[in-house]
Write a structure and sequence with these properties.
alpha/beta, binds the ligand O=C(O)[C@@H](O)C(=O)COP(=O)(O)O, three-stranded antiparallel β-sheet, Rossmann fold, 429 residues, binds adenosine-5'-diphosphate, 15-stranded mixed β-sheet, Molybdenum Cofactor Biosythetic Enzyme, Chain A
Protein backbone atom coordinates (compact mmCIF):
# COMPACT_ATOMS: atom_id res chain seq x y z
CA UNK A 1 0.00 0.00 0.00
CA UNK A 2 1.30 3.45 -0.92
CA UNK A 3 0.57 6.27 1.47
CA UNK A 4 1.57 9.90 1.67
CA UNK A 5 4.76 10.39 3.71
CA UNK A 6 2.51 10.74 6.74
CA UNK A 7 -1.21 10.03 6.81
CA UNK A 8 -2.84 13.37 7.68
CA UNK A 9 -6.11 11.96 8.91
CA UNK A 10 -7.12 8.51 10.10
CA UNK A 11 -10.80 7.59 10.38
CA UNK A 12 -12.64 4.63 11.87
CA UNK A 13 -16.26 4.33 10.74
CA UNK A 14 -18.74 2.19 12.65
CA UNK A 15 -20.54 1.12 9.48
CA UNK A 16 -19.88 0.94 5.76
CA UNK A 17 -22.40 3.48 4.51
CA UNK A 18 -21.12 5.91 7.13
CA UNK A 19 -17.59 5.28 5.91
CA UNK A 20 -18.49 6.03 2.31
CA UNK A 21 -20.35 9.16 3.43
CA UNK A 22 -17.22 10.35 5.25
CA UNK A 23 -14.87 9.34 2.41
CA UNK A 24 -17.13 11.34 0.08
CA UNK A 25 -16.99 14.42 2.33
CA UNK A 26 -13.21 14.27 2.72
CA UNK A 27 -12.72 13.80 -1.03
CA UNK A 28 -14.97 16.76 -1.87
CA UNK A 29 -13.02 18.86 0.66
CA UNK A 30 -9.76 18.14 -1.20
CA UNK A 31 -8.25 15.15 0.65
CA UNK A 32 -7.14 12.13 -1.36
CA UNK A 33 -9.12 9.48 0.46
CA UNK A 34 -9.59 5.74 0.33
CA UNK A 35 -12.17 3.60 2.13
CA UNK A 36 -10.96 0.23 3.35
CA UNK A 37 -13.05 -2.62 4.66
CA UNK A 38 -11.50 -3.39 8.01
CA UNK A 39 -7.78 -2.94 8.53
CA UNK A 40 -6.31 -3.49 5.06
CA UNK A 41 -3.97 -6.34 4.25
CA UNK A 42 -0.40 -5.23 3.55
CA UNK A 43 -0.60 -6.36 -0.06
CA UNK A 44 -3.70 -4.30 -0.94
CA UNK A 45 -2.62 -1.95 -3.74
CA UNK A 46 -3.97 1.53 -3.05
CA UNK A 47 -3.04 4.93 -4.46
CA UNK A 48 -1.22 7.58 -2.47
CA UNK A 49 -3.70 9.15 -0.05
CA UNK A 50 -4.01 11.78 2.68
CA UNK A 51 -6.80 10.04 4.58
CA UNK A 52 -7.91 6.46 5.14
CA UNK A 53 -11.40 5.59 6.35
CA UNK A 54 -11.33 2.11 7.90
CA UNK A 55 -14.87 0.73 7.74
CA UNK A 56 -16.01 -1.50 10.56
CA UNK A 57 -19.38 -3.15 11.07
CA UNK A 58 -19.30 -2.27 14.74
CA UNK A 59 -22.34 -0.09 15.35
CA UNK A 60 -24.72 -2.78 16.53
CA UNK A 61 -22.41 -5.53 17.78
CA UNK A 62 -21.43 -6.32 21.37
CA UNK A 63 -19.53 -3.37 22.88
CA UNK A 64 -16.38 -5.34 23.78
CA UNK A 65 -15.97 -6.47 20.16
CA UNK A 66 -16.57 -2.94 18.87
CA UNK A 67 -13.85 -1.70 21.22
CA UNK A 68 -11.26 -4.30 20.21
CA UNK A 69 -11.87 -3.82 16.47
CA UNK A 70 -11.76 -0.03 16.79
CA UNK A 71 -8.53 -0.18 18.78
CA UNK A 72 -6.92 -2.40 16.14
CA UNK A 73 -7.94 0.09 13.45
CA UNK A 74 -6.60 2.98 15.50
CA UNK A 75 -3.26 1.23 16.03
CA UNK A 76 -2.98 0.68 12.27
CA UNK A 77 -3.80 4.32 11.47
CA UNK A 78 -1.41 5.69 14.09
CA UNK A 79 1.23 3.32 12.74
CA UNK A 80 0.83 5.10 9.37
CA UNK A 81 1.44 8.46 11.02
CA UNK A 82 -2.13 9.66 11.60
CA UNK A 83 -1.85 12.43 14.16
CA UNK A 84 -5.62 12.73 14.41
CA UNK A 85 -8.15 9.92 14.41
CA UNK A 86 -11.85 10.60 13.82
CA UNK A 87 -14.25 7.94 15.08
CA UNK A 88 -17.12 8.27 12.57
CA UNK A 89 -20.55 7.59 14.04
CA UNK A 90 -23.98 8.10 12.58
CA UNK A 91 -25.31 11.64 12.16
CA UNK A 92 -28.39 10.38 14.01
CA UNK A 93 -26.19 8.99 16.82
CA UNK A 94 -27.57 5.47 16.28
CA UNK A 95 -26.83 3.43 19.40
CA UNK A 96 -28.82 2.03 22.29
CA UNK A 97 -27.89 2.58 25.96
CA UNK A 98 -25.91 -0.66 25.69
CA UNK A 99 -24.36 0.81 22.56
CA UNK A 100 -20.87 1.37 21.45
CA UNK A 101 -20.14 5.05 20.95
CA UNK A 102 -19.23 5.63 24.62
CA UNK A 103 -17.14 2.47 25.14
CA UNK A 104 -15.23 2.95 21.86
CA UNK A 105 -14.66 6.63 22.62
CA UNK A 106 -13.39 5.78 26.11
CA UNK A 107 -10.95 3.18 24.77
CA UNK A 108 -9.63 5.38 21.96
CA UNK A 109 -9.34 8.28 24.38
CA UNK A 110 -7.22 6.19 26.74
CA UNK A 111 -5.03 4.98 23.85
CA UNK A 112 -4.63 8.50 22.48
CA UNK A 113 -3.94 10.16 25.82
CA UNK A 114 -6.64 12.71 24.91
CA UNK A 115 -7.78 14.92 27.81
CA UNK A 116 -11.13 15.91 26.37
CA UNK A 117 -12.73 14.49 23.24
CA UNK A 118 -14.84 16.63 20.90
CA UNK A 119 -18.11 14.96 19.93
CA UNK A 120 -20.64 16.15 17.34
CA UNK A 121 -22.87 14.27 14.91
CA UNK A 122 -23.92 17.54 13.21
CA UNK A 123 -24.07 17.30 9.41
CA UNK A 124 -26.01 20.39 8.28
CA UNK A 125 -26.03 19.39 4.60
CA UNK A 126 -28.34 16.50 5.54
CA UNK A 127 -30.32 18.44 8.14
CA UNK A 128 -28.53 17.15 11.25
CA UNK A 129 -27.84 20.01 13.65
CA UNK A 130 -26.97 20.14 17.34
CA UNK A 131 -28.15 22.90 19.67
CA UNK A 132 -27.69 22.90 23.46
CA UNK A 133 -26.56 19.30 23.05
CA UNK A 134 -29.86 18.29 21.43
CA UNK A 135 -29.73 16.63 18.03
CA UNK A 136 -32.26 17.76 15.43
CA UNK A 137 -33.13 15.78 12.32
CA UNK A 138 -34.49 18.40 9.98
CA UNK A 139 -37.04 20.41 11.95
CA UNK A 140 -37.64 17.91 14.78
CA UNK A 141 -35.65 16.62 17.74
CA UNK A 142 -34.10 13.18 17.22
CA UNK A 143 -36.66 11.49 19.52
CA UNK A 144 -39.54 12.78 17.37
CA UNK A 145 -37.88 11.82 14.07
CA UNK A 146 -38.34 8.48 12.28
CA UNK A 147 -35.19 7.32 14.12
CA UNK A 148 -37.38 6.65 17.16
CA UNK A 149 -38.47 3.49 15.31
CA UNK A 150 -35.10 2.33 13.92
CA UNK A 151 -35.11 -1.50 13.78
CA UNK A 152 -31.78 -1.88 15.63
CA UNK A 153 -31.08 1.45 17.36
CA UNK A 154 -34.32 3.24 18.23
CA UNK A 155 -33.38 6.76 19.36
CA UNK A 156 -35.75 8.02 22.07
CA UNK A 157 -33.64 10.81 23.66
CA UNK A 158 -32.42 13.81 21.67
CA UNK A 159 -30.12 15.10 24.44
CA UNK A 160 -26.72 13.72 23.48
CA UNK A 161 -25.03 14.78 26.69
CA UNK A 162 -27.44 12.41 28.47
CA UNK A 163 -27.22 9.67 25.82
CA UNK A 164 -23.42 9.63 25.85
CA UNK A 165 -23.25 9.85 29.65
CA UNK A 166 -25.25 6.60 29.84
CA UNK A 167 -22.65 4.85 27.66
CA UNK A 168 -19.35 6.37 28.74
CA UNK A 169 -17.28 6.04 31.89
CA UNK A 170 -16.22 9.68 31.70
CA UNK A 171 -18.36 12.71 32.50
CA UNK A 172 -19.78 14.48 29.45
CA UNK A 173 -19.77 18.26 29.05
CA UNK A 174 -21.27 20.70 26.55
CA UNK A 175 -19.71 23.38 24.37
CA UNK A 176 -22.67 25.50 23.37
CA UNK A 177 -23.30 27.34 20.14
CA UNK A 178 -22.61 30.74 21.71
CA UNK A 179 -19.08 29.57 22.48
CA UNK A 180 -18.58 28.04 19.04
CA UNK A 181 -19.75 31.30 17.46
CA UNK A 182 -17.05 33.21 19.37
CA UNK A 183 -14.39 31.17 17.55
CA UNK A 184 -11.66 28.59 18.00
CA UNK A 185 -9.98 30.23 20.99
CA UNK A 186 -13.27 30.40 22.89
CA UNK A 187 -13.83 26.70 22.19
CA UNK A 188 -10.30 25.88 23.36
CA UNK A 189 -10.84 27.86 26.56
CA UNK A 190 -14.13 26.04 27.24
CA UNK A 191 -12.47 22.66 26.65
CA UNK A 192 -9.68 23.58 29.06
CA UNK A 193 -12.32 24.53 31.64
CA UNK A 194 -14.16 21.21 31.17
CA UNK A 195 -10.94 19.24 31.28
CA UNK A 196 -9.97 21.03 34.50
CA UNK A 197 -13.17 19.64 36.03
CA UNK A 198 -12.21 16.12 35.01
CA UNK A 199 -14.72 16.00 32.16
CA UNK A 200 -13.39 13.71 29.42
CA UNK A 201 -15.68 14.43 26.46
CA UNK A 202 -17.80 17.32 25.24
CA UNK A 203 -20.75 17.40 22.89
CA UNK A 204 -20.30 20.49 20.70
CA UNK A 205 -23.18 22.38 19.13
CA UNK A 206 -23.05 23.02 15.38
CA UNK A 207 -25.77 24.36 13.12
CA UNK A 208 -23.90 25.65 10.06
CA UNK A 209 -20.80 24.49 8.19
CA UNK A 210 -18.96 27.54 9.55
CA UNK A 211 -19.46 26.11 13.07
CA UNK A 212 -17.88 22.88 11.89
CA UNK A 213 -14.95 24.81 10.43
CA UNK A 214 -14.32 26.34 13.86
CA UNK A 215 -14.64 22.92 15.47
CA UNK A 216 -12.34 21.40 12.82
CA UNK A 217 -9.62 23.96 13.56
CA UNK A 218 -9.75 23.05 17.25
CA UNK A 219 -10.06 19.30 16.61
CA UNK A 220 -7.02 19.32 14.32
CA UNK A 221 -4.95 20.23 17.39
CA UNK A 222 -6.28 17.19 19.24
CA UNK A 223 -5.55 13.48 18.80
CA UNK A 224 -9.11 12.18 18.68
CA UNK A 225 -12.62 13.30 17.83
CA UNK A 226 -16.00 11.60 17.50
CA UNK A 227 -18.67 12.59 15.02
CA UNK A 228 -20.29 12.36 11.63
CA UNK A 229 -19.33 13.78 8.24
CA UNK A 230 -19.74 17.37 9.44
CA UNK A 231 -16.73 17.24 11.75
CA UNK A 232 -14.93 15.40 8.92
CA UNK A 233 -15.63 18.43 6.75
CA UNK A 234 -14.31 20.75 9.46
CA UNK A 235 -11.15 18.68 9.93
CA UNK A 236 -10.52 18.45 6.19
CA UNK A 237 -10.93 22.19 5.72
CA UNK A 238 -8.61 22.83 8.68
CA UNK A 239 -5.95 20.51 7.25
CA UNK A 240 -6.13 22.31 3.90
CA UNK A 241 -6.26 25.84 5.34
CA UNK A 242 -3.25 25.23 7.60
CA UNK A 243 -1.25 23.79 4.68
CA UNK A 244 -0.99 20.33 6.24
CA UNK A 245 -2.67 18.92 3.13
CA UNK A 246 -2.44 20.26 -0.41
CA UNK A 247 -6.00 20.29 -1.72
CA UNK A 248 -6.66 17.95 -4.63
CA UNK A 249 -9.64 18.34 -6.93
CA UNK A 250 -11.92 15.34 -6.54
CA UNK A 251 -11.01 13.02 -9.39
CA UNK A 252 -13.59 10.95 -11.13
CA UNK A 253 -12.42 7.74 -9.50
CA UNK A 254 -15.49 6.02 -10.90
CA UNK A 255 -13.30 5.99 -14.04
CA UNK A 256 -14.00 3.74 -16.98
CA UNK A 257 -17.43 2.13 -17.27
CA UNK A 258 -17.63 -1.39 -15.86
CA UNK A 259 -20.68 -2.46 -17.88
CA UNK A 260 -22.47 -5.62 -16.74
CA UNK A 261 -25.91 -5.79 -15.19
CA UNK A 262 -27.21 -3.57 -12.41
CA UNK A 263 -29.31 -4.30 -9.34
CA UNK A 264 -30.51 -2.60 -6.16
CA UNK A 265 -30.96 -4.18 -2.73
CA UNK A 266 -32.84 -2.47 0.10
CA UNK A 267 -32.67 -3.68 3.70
CA UNK A 268 -33.24 -0.30 5.29
CA UNK A 269 -36.68 0.31 6.78
CA UNK A 270 -36.23 4.08 7.00
CA UNK A 271 -39.00 6.34 5.72
CA UNK A 272 -36.65 7.74 3.08
CA UNK A 273 -35.87 4.26 1.73
CA UNK A 274 -39.52 3.19 1.79
CA UNK A 275 -40.36 6.24 -0.32
CA UNK A 276 -37.46 5.54 -2.71
CA UNK A 277 -38.66 1.96 -3.18
CA UNK A 278 -42.18 3.18 -3.94
CA UNK A 279 -40.78 5.53 -6.60
CA UNK A 280 -38.63 2.77 -8.11
CA UNK A 281 -41.75 0.63 -8.72
CA UNK A 282 -42.57 2.90 -11.66
CA UNK A 283 -39.24 2.40 -13.43
CA UNK A 284 -37.90 -1.08 -12.67
CA UNK A 285 -39.14 -4.52 -11.57
CA UNK A 286 -39.32 -4.63 -7.76
CA UNK A 287 -39.50 -7.78 -5.63
CA UNK A 288 -40.69 -7.45 -2.01
CA UNK A 289 -39.21 -10.27 0.05
CA UNK A 290 -41.30 -12.01 2.68
CA UNK A 291 -39.40 -11.18 5.91
CA UNK A 292 -41.19 -13.95 7.85
CA UNK A 293 -40.21 -16.43 5.13
CA UNK A 294 -36.56 -15.39 5.45
CA UNK A 295 -36.55 -16.06 9.18
CA UNK A 296 -38.33 -19.37 8.98
CA UNK A 297 -35.86 -20.48 6.29
CA UNK A 298 -38.35 -20.84 3.46
CA UNK A 299 -35.78 -20.34 0.66
CA UNK A 300 -36.56 -16.64 0.12
CA UNK A 301 -33.07 -15.80 -1.16
CA UNK A 302 -33.25 -18.58 -3.74
CA UNK A 303 -36.71 -17.46 -4.80
CA UNK A 304 -35.43 -13.91 -5.20
CA UNK A 305 -32.53 -15.04 -7.36
CA UNK A 306 -34.80 -17.09 -9.58
CA UNK A 307 -36.98 -14.00 -9.99
CA UNK A 308 -34.04 -11.65 -10.65
CA UNK A 309 -31.77 -13.63 -12.97
CA UNK A 310 -33.92 -13.55 -16.11
CA UNK A 311 -34.80 -9.89 -15.48
CA UNK A 312 -31.36 -8.32 -14.85
CA UNK A 313 -30.26 -9.11 -18.38
CA UNK A 314 -32.87 -6.62 -19.60
CA UNK A 315 -32.31 -3.86 -17.03
CA UNK A 316 -31.92 -3.07 -13.34
CA UNK A 317 -34.09 -4.71 -10.68
CA UNK A 318 -34.73 -3.90 -7.02
CA UNK A 319 -35.12 -6.47 -4.25
CA UNK A 320 -36.33 -5.15 -0.90
CA UNK A 321 -36.95 -6.61 2.54
CA UNK A 322 -38.01 -3.22 3.90
CA UNK A 323 -41.24 -2.87 5.87
CA UNK A 324 -43.00 -0.09 7.74
CA UNK A 325 -42.22 0.34 11.44
CA UNK A 326 -45.37 -1.41 12.75
CA UNK A 327 -44.54 -4.53 10.70
CA UNK A 328 -40.89 -4.38 11.80
CA UNK A 329 -42.02 -4.26 15.44
CA UNK A 330 -44.44 -7.18 14.94
CA UNK A 331 -41.75 -9.33 13.28
CA UNK A 332 -39.27 -8.52 16.05
CA UNK A 333 -41.87 -9.39 18.69
CA UNK A 334 -42.31 -12.82 17.07
CA UNK A 335 -38.63 -13.68 16.50
CA UNK A 336 -36.41 -11.26 18.49
CA UNK A 337 -34.70 -8.10 17.23
CA UNK A 338 -31.20 -9.46 16.67
CA UNK A 339 -32.37 -12.70 15.07
CA UNK A 340 -34.52 -10.78 12.60
CA UNK A 341 -31.75 -8.32 11.67
CA UNK A 342 -29.14 -11.02 11.20
CA UNK A 343 -31.37 -13.37 9.21
CA UNK A 344 -32.41 -10.64 6.77
CA UNK A 345 -28.84 -9.36 6.41
CA UNK A 346 -27.71 -12.93 5.70
CA UNK A 347 -30.39 -13.34 3.03
CA UNK A 348 -29.38 -10.04 1.43
CA UNK A 349 -25.77 -11.21 1.31
CA UNK A 350 -26.88 -14.50 -0.32
CA UNK A 351 -28.85 -12.55 -2.91
CA UNK A 352 -25.95 -10.16 -3.62
CA UNK A 353 -23.57 -13.07 -4.08
CA UNK A 354 -25.96 -14.80 -6.46
CA UNK A 355 -26.53 -11.62 -8.44
CA UNK A 356 -22.80 -11.01 -8.86
CA UNK A 357 -22.35 -14.62 -9.98
CA UNK A 358 -25.07 -13.90 -12.54
CA UNK A 359 -23.11 -10.96 -13.98
CA UNK A 360 -24.20 -7.99 -11.88
CA UNK A 361 -21.34 -5.48 -11.72
CA UNK A 362 -23.22 -2.40 -10.55
CA UNK A 363 -24.91 -2.72 -7.20
CA UNK A 364 -26.83 -0.17 -5.12
CA UNK A 365 -27.42 -1.15 -1.49
CA UNK A 366 -29.70 0.75 0.89
CA UNK A 367 -28.99 0.37 4.59
CA UNK A 368 -25.84 0.46 6.69
CA UNK A 369 -25.98 -2.99 8.26
CA UNK A 370 -27.29 -4.38 4.99
CA UNK A 371 -24.35 -2.85 3.11
CA UNK A 372 -21.96 -4.33 5.64
CA UNK A 373 -23.35 -7.83 5.15
CA UNK A 374 -23.26 -7.49 1.34
CA UNK A 375 -19.77 -6.02 1.05
CA UNK A 376 -18.36 -8.61 3.46
CA UNK A 377 -19.90 -11.44 1.46
CA UNK A 378 -18.51 -10.04 -1.78
CA UNK A 379 -15.08 -9.87 -0.09
CA UNK A 380 -14.41 -6.35 -1.32
CA UNK A 381 -11.33 -5.00 0.50
CA UNK A 382 -11.68 -1.30 -0.33
CA UNK A 383 -13.17 1.49 -2.41
CA UNK A 384 -12.13 4.57 -4.33
CA UNK A 385 -14.57 7.47 -4.21
CA UNK A 386 -16.28 8.61 -7.41
CA UNK A 387 -18.97 11.16 -8.16
CA UNK A 388 -21.56 12.14 -5.57
CA UNK A 389 -25.07 10.76 -6.14
CA UNK A 390 -26.73 12.55 -3.22
CA UNK A 391 -25.41 14.23 -0.08
CA UNK A 392 -23.42 11.57 1.77
CA UNK A 393 -23.59 8.93 -0.98
CA UNK A 394 -20.84 8.60 -3.62
CA UNK A 395 -20.33 6.10 -6.41
CA UNK A 396 -17.67 3.65 -5.17
CA UNK A 397 -15.27 1.66 -7.31
CA UNK A 398 -14.16 -1.59 -5.67
CA UNK A 399 -10.40 -2.10 -5.41
CA UNK A 400 -8.74 -5.49 -5.01
CA UNK A 401 -12.05 -7.36 -5.33
CA UNK A 402 -11.97 -11.04 -6.30
CA UNK A 403 -14.86 -10.42 -8.69
CA UNK A 404 -12.93 -7.74 -10.60
CA UNK A 405 -14.20 -4.29 -11.48
CA UNK A 406 -17.45 -3.34 -9.76
CA UNK A 407 -19.28 -0.12 -8.93
CA UNK A 408 -21.32 0.13 -5.75
CA UNK A 409 -23.37 2.76 -3.98
CA UNK A 410 -23.87 2.21 -0.25
CA UNK A 411 -26.76 4.38 0.83
CA UNK A 412 -27.46 5.26 4.41
CA UNK A 413 -31.11 4.42 5.00
CA UNK A 414 -31.96 8.05 5.61
CA UNK A 415 -30.08 9.62 2.73
CA UNK A 416 -31.00 10.43 -0.85
CA UNK A 417 -33.98 11.98 -2.63
CA UNK A 418 -37.13 10.18 -3.71
CA UNK A 419 -35.58 9.10 -7.04
CA UNK A 420 -32.38 7.84 -5.43
CA UNK A 421 -32.22 4.44 -7.15
CA UNK A 422 -32.62 5.97 -10.59
CA UNK A 423 -30.19 8.77 -9.75
CA UNK A 424 -27.59 6.23 -8.62
CA UNK A 425 -27.92 3.93 -11.61
CA UNK A 426 -27.70 6.92 -13.94
CA UNK A 427 -24.21 7.67 -12.59
CA UNK A 428 -22.99 4.07 -12.45
CA UNK A 429 -22.00 2.99 -15.94
N1 LIG B 1 -38.86 -6.15 7.09
C1 LIG B 1 -37.96 -6.06 8.07
N2 LIG B 1 -38.32 -6.24 9.35
C2 LIG B 1 -37.41 -6.14 10.36
N3 LIG B 1 -36.11 -5.86 10.17
C3 LIG B 1 -35.70 -5.69 8.92
C4 LIG B 1 -36.58 -5.78 7.80
N4 LIG B 1 -35.89 -5.56 6.67
C5 LIG B 1 -34.62 -5.35 7.06
N5 LIG B 1 -34.49 -5.42 8.40
C6 LIG B 1 -33.28 -5.24 9.21
O1 LIG B 1 -33.26 -3.90 9.68
C7 LIG B 1 -31.93 -3.45 9.78
C8 LIG B 1 -31.81 -2.18 8.97
O2 LIG B 1 -30.59 -1.59 9.25
P1 LIG B 1 -29.69 -0.91 8.14
O3 LIG B 1 -29.43 -1.84 7.03
O4 LIG B 1 -28.49 -0.38 8.87
O5 LIG B 1 -30.58 0.28 7.61
P2 LIG B 1 -30.47 1.84 7.97
O6 LIG B 1 -29.37 2.39 7.11
O7 LIG B 1 -31.81 2.40 7.66
O8 LIG B 1 -30.10 1.95 9.43
C9 LIG B 1 -31.03 -4.55 9.25
O9 LIG B 1 -30.51 -5.32 10.31
C10 LIG B 1 -32.01 -5.38 8.41
O10 LIG B 1 -31.62 -6.74 8.27
O1 LIG C 1 -23.83 9.85 9.36
C1 LIG C 1 -24.75 9.30 8.75
O2 LIG C 1 -25.94 9.59 8.90
C2 LIG C 1 -24.41 8.19 7.81
O3 LIG C 1 -23.12 8.32 7.33
C3 LIG C 1 -24.46 6.87 8.49
O4 LIG C 1 -23.71 6.59 9.40
C4 LIG C 1 -25.41 5.96 7.94
O5 LIG C 1 -25.87 4.92 8.78
P1 LIG C 1 -27.12 4.05 8.29
O6 LIG C 1 -28.33 4.96 8.27
O7 LIG C 1 -27.27 2.91 9.24
O8 LIG C 1 -26.80 3.57 6.92
Amino acid sequence: MTLAARLSLGCIADDYTGASDLANTLTRAGLRTVQTIGVPADDLALPEVDAVVVSLKSRSIEAGLAVSRSRAAEAWLRGRGAGHVLFKICSTFDSTDAGNIGPVMDALRADSGEAVVLVTPAFPETGRTVYQGNLFVGAVPLNESPLKDHPLNPMRDSNLVRVLARQSKTQIGLVDLATVTRGADAVRARLAELSGKGIGAAVIDAVFDRDLETIGLVAAGHRLSVGASGIGLGLARALVSTGEVKSTTASSAAGAPVGGSAACLAGSCSQATLQQIAKAEAVMPVLHLDPDGIITGAGEAQRALEWAKPRVVDGPVLIASSSASDQVAALQARHGRDAVGLAIEHAMADIAEGLVQAGVKRLVVAGGETSGAVVDRLKIPGFLVGVEIAAGVPVLRAVGAEKGDMLLALKSGNFGGAEFFTDALGLMR
